[in-house]
Amino acid sequence: MTLFEAVSAFCARHGFDKTYWLAYSGGLDSHVLLSLCAELRTVFPLKLKAIHIHHGLSAQADKWAKHCARVCREYDIVYIEHAIQLDLAPGDSLEEIARTRRYAVLAECLGEGDILLTAHQQDDQAETLLLQLFRGAGLKGLAAMPSFKPFARGFHGRPLLAFPRAELRHYADAHHLEWMEDESNQDLRLTRNFIRHTILGPLKARWPTIVSAISRSAGHCAEAHTLLAELTTPAFNLENADTQPLSIEKLLPLDAPKQRWMLRTWIERSGFPVPDTRKMETIRLNVLSANWDRLPVVKWGNTELRRHRDKLYLMSSLLPHDPKQQFEWDLTGPLPLPFLGALHVSMLEGAGLRADIQQVSVRFRQGGEKIPIPGRGRRTLKNLLQEWDVLPWERDRLPLIFAGGVLAMIPGYFIHPDFEARKGEKGLAIQVVPVA
Question: If we measure between CA atoms, which residue out of 302, 274, 231 comes closest to residue 140?
Answer without folding.
Answer: 274
